[in-house]
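Below: protein 1.
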Amino acid sequence: MTEQTPSLQNSIAISTIFVLVLWWLKLCEMMFGLNFQQLGVYPLTASGIIGIVTGPLIHGSWQHVISNTLPILLLGSFLLYGYPKSRWWTLAIIWIVSGLGVWLFGRESYHLGASGLAHGMFFYLFISGILRRDKRSSALMMVAFYMYGGMLLSILPREQWISFEYHLFGALSGAFCALVFRHWDPKPKRKVYSWEGQEDEDAELNHDQGNEEKSMVAEQWKSRYDD
């Protein structure tokens, strides 16, 4: 499958595999008595900088994993399917920039989870739909907004134990990517129906016939004038 014709099935499969990795890591913690919390982002510390890469993979509880599963699955599938040329650049930038923003400006605590990635994907889809205005982008934007429009507000501070910083910097990086990559992906070609082609042919034929009639009238008037 080429970049110009992405497969929805493949996009869903990739998102599903990523979600399964999140669940597998949490299951390993439970089964082997491990604690991956130290792999989160801890602001302004040398040991916490590794969390920029590993933080989105680690979750504090099963409820945390469950709450991120459906947004990652759906928004990830939308982004992978709708934006074949910019998708990997977008995901990489959201992943790194959101973690870096948390490391630089976050509160003194471990910041974990894929919610920053989810917010980045939502804002990318939302703003891309506004900027591009083609049918596919608009449809993906409307579905994403209908399901997760609340992410527009969850970038603000709420509960103390929720990393709004991850949400905020994920959203900012997603918006940045939507602006920078707005012309990267080709817009889907408009389907032309058979009756539309027939209308064009009929219009061209009528135009030619009209020109012929005008020429005949002009010649008749000219011949009368000469007589």
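Below: protein 2.
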Amino acid sequence: MANIAVQRIRREFKEVLKSEETSKNQIRVELVDENFTELRGEIAGPPDTPYEGGRFQLEIKIPETYPFNPPKVRFITKIWHPNISSVTGAICLDILKDQWAAAMTLRTVLLSLQALLAAAEPDDPQDAVVANQYKQNAEMYKQTARQWSHVFAGAPVSTPDYNRKIDKLCSMGFEKNAVVAALSSKSWDVETATELLLNN
């Protein structure tokens, strides 16, 4: 990795570790390798959102051209959000693409991702299924996002009816992650979710 990138990310890594703002917002970062080319981030679900109480892991890859190009970031923890792929964790956020500026930092990225959880942009989606649910049935979107936060990110709140549906399909031998994804994409209808699971 280029010397400028290493020096810069080393400084930013320390900044995140020492920042009161990131500590207060329950944002963490750790090294995956000693070369500072890959980091693991963690953000807490913001209060008063369906993600509250969840801990969301991020994969952060630092390119050799950093800080002139943005880090490559994706969610490792599965999440139900219009701007984040429910399958791959890919993120649609302008500062990770064409709105990146060399003055931005790792701290900026992590705080922006946490803010994105509180303010979805369904008209610029990464996941069309989630965005459609967000626009057409906001309450179901919130319940589904809360359920995903419970199942995948350890949030304490879940929906008992959704838990029963998950348990029912899991008892039929389907894998839990596939069950949650199928039910979520089929508006929690067991029959159509079962058809989807059987056809995959």
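The CA atoms of residues 161 and 195 lie 20 Å apart.
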